[in-house]
Write a structure and sequence with these properties.
The complex is a heterodimer of chains A (431) and B (278).
Chain A lengths: L7 H7 L26 H8 L14 H14 L3 E5 L2 H12 L5 E5 L4 H13 L3 E5 L4 H7 L4 E7 L11 H10 L4 E4 L4 H4 L9 E5 L13 E5 L5 H4 L3 H4 L10 H4 L4 H14 L5 H11 L2 H20 L4 E5 L9 H7 L7 E6 L3 H10 L4 E2 L9 E3 L11 H6 L6 E5 L5 H18 L1
Parallel strand pairs in A: 2-3, 2-4, 4-5, 5-6, 10-11
Antiparallel strand pairs in A: 1-7, 6-7, 8-9, 9-12, 11-12
Helix pairs in contact in A: 1-3, 3-13, 4-12, 14-18, 16-18
Chain B lengths: L1 E3 L4 E4 L11 E5 L10 H8 L4 E5 L15 H14 L5 E6 L1 H12 L4 E7 L9 H9 L1 H11 L21 H16 L3 H11 L3 H7 L4 E6 L11 H6 L3 E6 L6 H4 L1 H15 L6
Parallel strand pairs in B: 3-4, 3-5, 5-6, 6-7, 7-8
Antiparallel strand pairs in B: 1-2, 2-4
Helix pairs in contact in B: 1-11, 2-3, 3-8, 4-5, 4-7, 5-6
Classes of the chains: A alpha/beta (431), B alpha/beta (278).
């Protein structure tokens, strides 16, 4: 008696949106409105008191944004989602919902720099401490948990070496200690991996990247798998005890599987206000419709680029988990059978000047600080994002003078290889 | 609140302190579920003059003990608790398995019951043997089957508006996660026990015919678990049934059409209780 859910490609096009009942619009309308007219006073009170479903004010929810949220929840197999102003806002919303001053996080050290800044510096100023560890060291995850730890956190594919997070193992450690695991899934998207299937409890994305895919809108999204038993854990009073800031609501009583999302929306969006605009949601939905097609092409192109670079004499090493030389090769085969994304780093032979010459010689790749665009992108960390960092610290971060980060786009792969070949040739002349 | 202790029988009260003197709405969930399937309807009624008791059935989520093996045994336990709580008048609202319990509960408390609302019901409610076997041998597959069949067909389970309990939520995945949570917390015997209780229940016609109170049927036009035609004989057995059919809704009516179910229950409650609630 086999049953099946709608397929990924179908959900990417349809989830969260029936045709507009008023106009018949097939495309998702942009509801550019701050607020919504109540039917009467009772309707107003019921919406405010969470007795009825609906929209009150677009900082809390908006019909266009809700389509994006529900589509992402459908694709990730989560109980719901909250769209945010950026990926960083999603990370902050998750943390602020779960904990306050005096709490502690155990995080992978292989993080996007912005996440590292938030955890290492900014949240520390607000009394939330983070211990950064080598994500491959499972013992370190276990040893770093303290009585006040509230969250374990890593990236599905870490920066800059594409460390593959062993989600099943780290989730097991977390759950045995009554803690949730949150992952940043920006580099993998639900097309390459659905982290809830492997044990993660919360997922967020910088939707600016592959979700949108076109680099025209900044946005983030936080998805709750509904898998973590906050009540059984006993460590999360924000979810399991009455909240005087919202009608004395005990969120875990209201919803057995989604108290986190209830509080995050009713408190986090309400008070911090880092919401997504309906225009941004519309842009991101346009991208989301073609996510499966794009991600497959991203991976196909990346495999060709990786193969080309790995055999090039001017290239010292390539860090891509599909290569047998990568330390997480076996884990990647298990967790990421569809591919390891389209962002990776490689080390050129030669000086910092050679790296600069390489980047400046590229014609198809765009030199900028972003990833996940339909267009191919490149950056040379030693001369840009990390140019003030001393050499020994660069080395500790896994960055050499010749480290180049690529985000492989959707162009004709032959053009990408030609472009890389001519730029490597020019860089070799610099030495 | 704890409606009973030893073993604990938990009831969500809709965000308000329960007052047994008020006209009370008793919500009864279906197989492998808990009180939270009624989140919007129960909260609305609690804030509109009614006492609300949305139960976790014995052995489900916060209520202790094993899941009980017959509809009658569950009804006995709840009836005892309502008597102890001195509930003065109530309507019973049950979905699927909960609808059968609602019938039996009304039969046990004729002096205080004012109505019975049967949501997504059928009688007999026999669970197909392959599905019943799957609940024992392949529970994950069984829960997927139930989840798919509990919602309107095809993509509709993923695009229904308004979302429940609010914008941004997925009805489908919440339902699956809730069933998985019950399994995780209460063990793997709950689902087969519930289904066997549904299948074995044999007194539907007699009980329905014996009720003196009004009976409301709220049916999903696209329900493939308990299709409207499967409720017809039970409807015919009632003295003065009222039927509300919500089009394009499946078995998870309360989540798929929260406004439709709420409106039907509110209308029924207003007519069922002798004095209008404030």
């Amino acid at each position: 008696m086999p049953v099946r859910y709608p397929g990924f490609d179908t959900l990417a096009l349809h989830a969260g949106q029936p045709p507009d009942p008023t106009t018949g619009s097939r495309a998702v309308p942009i509801y550019a409105t701050a607020s919504y007219v109540f039917e009467d006073s009772d309707h107003a009170a019921a919406l405010f008191n969470m007795e009825r479903s609906g929209h009150v004010y677009s900082r809390i929810s908006n019909p266009t944004v809700a389509v994006f949220e529900e589509r992402m929840a459908a694709l990730e197999k989560g109980v719901g989602a909250i769209a945010t102003a950026s990926g960083q806002a999603a990370l902050h919303l998750a943390i602020a919902t779960l904990m306050g001053a005096g709490a502690h996080i155990v995080a992978s050290r292989s993080l996007y720099g912005g996440s590292h800044n938030l955890l290492g510096y900014t949240l520390a100023r607000f009394g939330i401490d983070t211990t950064f560890i080598d994500p491959r060291d499972l013992g370190a995850w276990e040893r770093s948990i303290r009585p006040n730890t509230q969250l374990l956190f890593g990236e599905t594919l870490g920066n800059p070496g594409l460390d593959v997070l062993d989600i099943p193992a780290v989730a097991d450690i977390a759950h045995r200690r009554g803690l949730p695991l949150m992952v940043d899934s920006t580099f993998t998207t639900p097309f390459l991996m659905t982290p809830f299937d492997h044990g993660a409890d919360l997922v967020y994305h910088s939707a600016t990247k592959f979700i949108g895919g076109h680099g025209v809108a900044i946005g983030g999204v936080l998805i709750d798998g509904g898998t973590f038993d906050w009540l059984a854990s006993g460590r999360f009073p924000t979810l399991t005890e009455p909240y005087v800031g919202f009608h004395g609501m005990n969120f875990a009583e209201e919803s057995t599987v989604a108290p986190f999302l209830l509080r995050a929306r009713r408190e986090g969006l309400r008070d911090f206000g880092a919401c997504m605009s309906p225009h941004t949601a519309f842009f991101l939905l346009q991208g989301l419709e073609t996510l499966p097609l794009r991600m497959q092409r991203h991976v196909d192109n990346t495999r060709k680029v990786v193969g080309f670079l790995a055999s090039h004499a001017a290239v010292e090493s390539v860090a891509y988990p599909e290569l047998p030389s990568h330390p997480d090769h076996a884990l990647a085969q298990r967790l990421l059978p569809r591919g390891c994304g389209a962002v990776f780093s490689f080390n050129m032979r030669g000086s910092r000047a050679a790296g600069r010459a390489f980047v400046e010689s590229l014609q198809v790749f765009s030199h900028l600080a972003n990833v996940g665009d339909a267009k191919s992108l490149v950056i040379h960390p030693a001369s840009t994002t990390h140019f003030r960092v001393p050499d020994e610290q660069l080395e500790a971060a896994g960055i050499t003078q010749g480290t180049i980060r690529l985000s492989v786009g959707l162009e004709d792969p032959a053009d990408l290889l030609d472009d890389l070949a001519q730029a490597l040739k020019r860089a070799q002349k610099v030495g | 609140m704890d409606l009973a202790t030893s073993p604990r029988l938990y009831a969500y009260t809709g965000g308000k302190t329960f007052d047994a003197a008020k006209p009370t709405v008793v919500f009864l969930h279906g197989a492998q579920h808990d009180h939270s399937v009624w989140i919007l309807q129960s909260r609305y009624l609690a804030h509109h003059g009614y006492g609300v008791l949305a139960l976790d059935l014995p052995g489900h989520m916060r209520s202790e003990g094993p899941a009980l093996e017959t509809v009658e045994a569950i009804a006995d336990r709840i009836a005892d608790a309502l008597r102890s709580a001195r509930v003065s008048q109530f309507i019973a609202v049950g979905q699927s398995m909960g609808s059968l319990i609602a019938l039996e509960l009304a039969k046990r408390l004729p002096e205080v019951v004012r109505g019975v609302a049967l949501v997504a019901t059928a009688f007999p409610m026999r669970v197909a043997e392959p599905l019943l076997n799957a609940t024992r041998e392949a529970p994950d597959e069984a829960m997927d089957m139930i989840n798919v069949w509990s919602h309107s067909p095809s993509i509709a389970g993923f695009d229904r508006k308004p979302s429940n309990p609010g914008p941004g939520f997925s009805t489908m995945w919440q339902n699956l996660r809730l069933m998985q949570r019950i399994q995780q917390r209460n063990g793997g015997t709950v689902l087969p026990t519930d289904f066997v209780a549904c299948s074995r229940y044999a007194a539907g016609f007699e009980t329905a015919a014996s009720l003196q109170c009004p009976v409301l049927f709220v049916l999903g036009g696209s329900d493939s678990m308990t299709p409207p035609r499967a409720a017809k004989a039970l409807i015919d057995a009632c003295r003065s049934p009222q039927v509300v059919t919500l089009p394009h809704s499946g078995h998870s009516l309360m989540a798929e059409n929260p406004d439709g179910v709420r409106a039907a229950i509110v209308d029924f409650a207003r007519r069922a209780f002798p004095a209008p609630a404030d």
